[in-house]
UniProtKB/TrEMBL annotation:
GO CC terms of this entry: cytoplasm; membrane
Main location: membrane
InterPro entries, per the entry: Mpv17_PMP22
Family named by the database record: Belongs to the peroxisomal membrane protein PXMP2/4 family.
Protein known as: Uncharacterized protein
UniProtKB keywords: Membrane, Transmembrane, Transmembrane helix
Length: 137
């Protein structure tokens, strides 16, 4: 829960190590921590992308990207990677065969879903139609 994560964070911040604090919060509230981390990561990535392409100017876009990371990418990717770990060479999850198989499945199955979902989210946040009729001439 959020309260457990907050308590764990407060307890470990006194240690002075951000990594120790993060690992403690991750252990006490793994899904919430992954979701928040994803949201922050998507927001930072968007700010960097905007800065590199002429300067930060679209806070709504950044908020939409942060929300995508928090609400969709965080929980869905957590479930996806836990599923891969459970079913793909679980006795040696970090071995070469497992890593190769997980990477292949990730690129073939998860990446297309993620990219399509991100574009759909972006269009929905901009109020654009997800499906556009095309005139056949």
């Amino acid at each position: 829960t959020a309260r457990a994560a907050s308590s764990a964070l407060a307890d470990t911040l006194s240690s002075g190590s951000p990594l120790v604090a993060y690992e403690s919060v991750l252990a006490s509230s793994p899904l919430l921590t992954k979701c928040v981390t994803s949201g922050v990561g998507f927001a930072v990535a968007d700010v960097v992308a905007q800065s590199l392409s002429g300067g930060f100017r679209d806070a709504k876009r950044t908020a939409a990207n942060a929300a995508f990371g928090l609400v969709l990418y965080g929980p869905l990717s957590s479930a996806w990677y836990e599923t891969l770990d459970a079913f793909i060479v679980p006795e040696s999850p970090n071995g070469a065969a497992a890593v190769a198989a997980k990477t292949l499945l990730d690129q073939i199955l998860w990446a297309p879903v993620l990219v399509t979902g991100l574009f759909a989210w972006d269009m929905a946040c901009k109020g654009e139609p997800l499906f556009v009729a095309r005139d056949e001439k």
